[in-house]
Amino acid sequence: MNEKRMWLYDLLFILVLLMAGYLRLTGVNWGEGFHQHPDELFLTSVLDNLRAHACNDPTIPVDACLADQTHWMSLAQYFNTSTSTLNPYNRGQSFFVYGNLPMTIVRYAIELSGNEDIGKSKFFARQFSALADLFTIFILYLIVSNLYGRRIGLLASAFSALTVMQIQQSHFFTTDLFANLFMFLALLFACAIPYARDPQGDESSSNQVWRVLQHPLFLFSIGFGITLGMAMASKINAAALAIVLPGALLLRYFFYKQEQGQQIQRDAFIKFAFIALVAGGVTALISFRVVSHVKTWHGIYNGRAARIYIPLRTLRYGDWACRWAFWHGPDFC
């Protein structure tokens, strides 16, 4: 299609997105108040117990505080994970092994909109799963359009819009679609790295730091790290996506090497790629800490441990197997 008519694909994509929205946002009240999905039941019970407000009197628990005597949680209170009321572990949910970020987003939305009715919070939260998937379809369209053109991007988004699994998950309040959204955002940054152009400007040594900070590779790596950290805070196994960043940098090296008339110094590129990798990794850890209420890596380990604790207990020698698996101490068993 002529470049002047490429907007038609964007128009068709809007229709695809509307269709996807209809399939995801209708029927959110299914179940008639019963809890057929065990994960959703658990997450909803945790969600109803979290609080984004704090009492003006720090000696009074927020649940016992009058509504006009509360305020939004301060940054200091938010980052104090040992006392934060957005931390499920402080609200009697010591077995919480899911990501905190979706819970925090929905809890803030509940208190902002005043939808704090326990019987309705589940239906309200389901709509956020649907919205997360709609944003994912939009990001998919951007990724594929940049790589293969708008026509293929439209086809990919249409397939995603009609995927039964995504439609089904959009009618549950679970962490999967939130993690999927942030993982696709990370892929959007990663896919831009191989094709990013070096900025033109003064190459004197005095401007080297500034050139690094404004270089597209550095900025895309930072973006990748931020979104990867958010994906990990939604579902910790999203950390496996970290391998995409070095892969994208490697692709960039080979693309530039094969390009006619484009010279690339191997040692200089390796040095810059190392800086980009470190920046992406550090940013991912900072992002994870900012949006998650896991205080230490021990908390992450326990989240993983909890998922294999029950299967181990079902073995004939469950107690022994559990203690062998968690060699750091038998207390968990």
Structure description:
The chain has 333 residues and is mainly alpha-helical. It folds into three domains: 120 residues, no CATH class; 114 residues, no CATH class; 36 residues, no CATH class. Strands 1-2 form a two-stranded antiparallel ribbon. It is globular and about 65 Å long. The C terminus is likely disordered.
Which helices and strands appear, and what pairs or packs with what?
Elements: H1 7-25, H2 38-49, E1 53-55, E2 70-72, H3 75-79, H4 101-113, H5 121-148, H6 150-161, H7 164-169, H8 176-192, H9 208-214, H10 216-234, H11 244-258, H12 266-291, H13 297-313, H14 318-325
Antiparallel strand pairs: 1-2
Helix pairs in contact: 1-5, 1-6, 2-4, 5-6, 5-8, 8-10, 8-11, 10-12, 11-12, 13-14
Q: In a nutshell, what does this entry contain?
A:
With 333 residues, the protein is mainly α.
Task: List the helices and strands in order.
Answer: HHEEHHHHHHHHHHHH
The total beta strand count reads 2
In the residues, how many domains can be counted?
3
Largest sheet entry = 2 strands, antiparallel
The low-confidence runs, each spanning 5 or more residues with pLDDT under 50, are 303-333
Strand proportion, as a percent range, falls in under 5%
Query: Can you count the helices?
Result: 14
What is the gyration radius calculated from CA atoms?
23 Å
* End-to-end separation: 63 Å
Secondary-structure-based class equals: mainly alpha
- Main sheet: strand order: 1-2
DSSP helix fraction? 55-70%
What is the overall shape?
Answer: globular
Overall mean pLDDT stands at 82
